[in-house]
């Protein structure tokens, strides 16, 4: 089975005087389907005027299993109880904590709300927020 490693070179060619040196950058990244393993990455440079003269170097590229663990968020609604008269709205503060491990990317959480079944419910549009792992947000 074949897997993709994405490679991006900072330059495609360099002109050098005899004895001179220069640097280029090779960026290597794996795709989501690339299994955990060590892969051989090889860079080559070919003399454009004498193509039989080729230099190469290799390095190992290790893909490890992500240590990201996704967990349910913690929500707190405060205050826990409020008393009001008819037609008078009350406000609650919602606190959300993303409990994913810090190696995870930030997550989008969609809020919704409900009320006891004997009440007619009307709601504003759902509210979406991005929360980095391990970071609390307050709304």
Q: What keyword list fits this structure?
A:
0% helix; 3-stranded antiparallel β-sheet; two-stranded antiparallel sheet; single chain
Task: Give your account of this protein's structure.
The protein has 139 residues and is mainly beta. It has strands at residues 5-9, 26-30, 37-46, 54-63, 74-78, 93-97, 107-111, 127-131, 136-138. The mean pLDDT is 81.
SSE diagram, text form:
Layout (H helix, E strand, L loop, with lengths): L4 E5 L16 E5 L6 E10 L7 E10 L10 E5 L14 E5 L9 E5 L15 E5 L4 E3 L1
Antiparallel strand pairs: 1-2, 3-4, 5-6, 6-9, 7-8
Kindly summarize this structure in a few lines:
With 139 residues, the protein is an all-beta fold. Helix content is 0%, strand content 38%.
Individual helix count? 0
Oligomer: single chain
| N-end to C-end Cα span | 48 Å
Radius of gyration: 28 Å
Which regions contain 5 or more consecutive residues with pLDDT less than 50?
A: none
Biggest beta-sheet profile: 3 strands, antiparallel
The helical percent reads under 10%
Which series of helices and strands comes N to C? EEEEEEEEE
Classify the beta-strand content into a percent band: 35-45%
Please list the strands of the largest sheet in the order they lie side by side. Answer: 5-6-9
Mean pLDDT: 81
Structural class: mainly beta
Q: Please state the overall shape, judged from the principal axes of the Cα atoms.
A: elongated
Number of strands: 9
